[in-house]
Structure formats: structure tokens, C-alpha cells
Design a protein that fits this description.
The complex is a heterodimer of chains A (about 130) and B (about 130).
Chain A: H1 2-14, H2 19-35, E1 50-51, E2 55-56, E3 62-66, E4 72-74, E5 77-79, H3 84-91, E6 99-103, H4 109-120, E7 126-132
Parallel strand pairs in A: 1-7, 3-6, 6-7
Antiparallel strand pairs in A: 3-4, 4-5
Chain B: H1 2-13, H2 18-34, E1 41-44, H3 50-55, E2 61-65, E3 72-73, E4 76-77, H4 82-90, E5 97-102, H5 108-120, E6 125-130
Parallel strand pairs in B: 2-5, 5-6
Antiparallel strand pairs in B: 3-4
Classes of the chains: A alpha/beta (about 130), B alpha/beta (about 130).
Chain lengths: ~130, ~130
């Protein structure tokens, strides 16, 4: 009798109750599913211009980058100027996503003006990514 | 013998959740890795297209950025510091529209800073325009 009760006690002790763990993991899983936006990054690092007035931009946007050597990047690949508005139209099925251009401060401004003009054809809002002045 | 059967029943009623946990963990790790939290800050140049400009009565204020790195208004160099005061002085009741004309060789960083200064001074809309020689 005594032996049996001790045995069951030990058995109860041995298996951990996993249901709170599952609860927490499910909550985390749902949070990450909801917050996943799948933004394709341009894939290059630019040195952004520093400005005083900067506002936070929309998270779910189409990103382009203009490098120091005046190359345009989108989703890790170098693209031409004329390809920009078809790419935006492709990424933008029906919802009007804004476009964010990550511009290097030593890039050519005329090319930037052309990129903005080209993006405006297909997207309602075009923004430039900057650094906040400290 | 009887104890054996009760043990058997207890095993039957309990669902084995470990494959479920495995799967959920794999999904969780996938979504953690796939989520890219980008938080960009920046400026937006909200400029209406040219036909709405015609209706606007006040003329836009032109800034010119030549390749030399200066900021010109009507041919005079004002520098980056002078942009905000130019915009404030020109504005009557309506906040002015700004057009920044950039020529070959002007740097995008300077153009962005001029846009920022103009927006800071209360400009309604800023447009970047390339001028060809």
C-alpha cells in the first residue's frame, strides 16, 4: 500500500504540466503571425542624410535604395530607372502601399528626383528615409 | 492485474501533445525569423501634380542646387541655414509650395536637407525637379 502510493506520487512528479507552455507559445505564435508583414529589403546599406524634422513612416511599404554609386536597388537586385513603376505596380495589387526610398547622401540628386517622379506615377506617397539629428 | 488496466486507461485518455508542441515551435521560429521589424523615419514630399498647381494662386518658391553644393534663390546663394527664413518670409497666409531644382552633380543629401528645412519652416509641399543642361 505504502509502496504503491509512493510510486504514483513519483509518477505524478515526473511528467511536467505542459499546458501553460503551450498557451504561451500559441500567444507568441499568433502575435508573430499577425505582425508578419514580409517586407523585402533593398539589401544594401546606405548612409542616410541627417535631418531635423523626421516622422516615422508606414511599416508596410515598398522599399527602394539609391546607392552612393547611383545604382537603384530593390529586393537585393540592381534595377533600372524605368523598371521602378512596373515593380511598384506588381507589389501593389490593389492596396496603395507607400514607397520609401533609402537614399545615400552622396548620391546624385537628379537621379533621386527622377526616381521620385517615377514612383509618384504608381504610388500615392513617396518618402525618403533619413536619420534623426541628435 | 486491475492496476494494470487502470494504467492502460489513463494512457488512452491522455493525448500526446509533444508533436503539436514541436510543430508549433517550428512555426513560431519561422515567424520570428521571417518578421522584419523595420522602423524607418523620414520625410514625405507630398506634392500635388501639375494641374492643381495652376489653380494655386501663389507661385511656388524655387530653390536651385547647382553641382557646387550651394543653395541658390534667384541666383543668390543662401546656404542651408537660409532656406528656412526664405520660406518663412515668402509665406503670406497660405503656406508656400517649394520646388527644388537640382542639376547634375548636386548631392542627394543636400537636397534632402533643403527639403527638410523647407518643411520645418512650414512649407506645404516640396517637389524635387531635375534640370538638364
Amino acid at each position: 500500500m505504502k509502496l504503491r502510493s509512493r510510486l504514483t506520487l513519483e509518477e505524478e512528479d515526473r511528467d511536467i504540466n505542459v499546458s501553460p507552455l503551450i498557451d504561451v507559445v500559441f500567444i507568441l505564435l499568433i502575435f508573430f503571425i499577425v505582425s508578419a508583414t514580409f517586407v523585402t529589403l533593398p539589401g544594401i546599406d546606405v548612409s542616410r542624410p541627417q535631418v531635423q524634422r523626421a516622422e516615422s513612416l508606414k511599416k508596410n511599404s515598398i522599399l527602394f535604395a539609391l546607392s552612393e554609386k547611383n545604382q537603384i536597388f530593390h529586393a537585393g537586385k540592381s534595377v533600372e530607372l524605368a523598371e521602378i513603376s512596373p515593380l511598384i505596380a506588381l507589389a501593389n495589387k490593389e492596396n496603395n502601399k507607400p514607397v520609401v526610398i533609402q537614399v545615400d547622401k552622396w548620391a546624385d540628386a537628379t537621379l533621386l528626383a527622377k526616381i521620385i517622379a517615377e514612383s509618384k506615377k504608381a504610388a500615392p506617397i513617396v518618402s525618403l528615409a533619413t536619420l534623426k539629428e541628435r | 492485474m486491475r492496476r494494470n488496466r487502470s494504467n492502460f486507461q489513463a494512457e488512452r485518455t491522455e493525448i500526446n501533445v509533444s508533436p503539436l508542441i514541436d510543430m508549433v515551435f517550428i512555426l513560431l521560429i519561422f515567424f520570428i525569423v521571417a518578421t522584419s521589424f523595420i522602423d524607418e523615419i523620414g520625410i514625405s514630399s507630398n506634392y500635388k501634380d501639375s494641374n492643381s498647381m495652376v489653380k494655386n494662386e501663389n507661385k511656388p518658391l524655387f530653390f536651385t542646387l547647382p553641382g557646387s553644393g550651394e543653395v541658390l534663390v534667384d541666383g543668390y546663394s543662401v546656404g542651408l541655414e537660409g532656406v528656412a527664413s526664405k520660406v518663412r518670409n515668402s509665406s503670406g497666409l497660405v503656406p508656400p509650395s517649394i520646388v527644388i531644382q537640382v542639376s547634375e552633380g548636386a548631392k542627394a543629401g543636400l537636397a534632402t536637407q533643403v527639403m527638410d528645412q523647407a518643411l520645418l519652416a512650414g512649407a506645404k509641399a516640396v517637389k524635387l525637379a531635375a534640370i538638364s543642361k
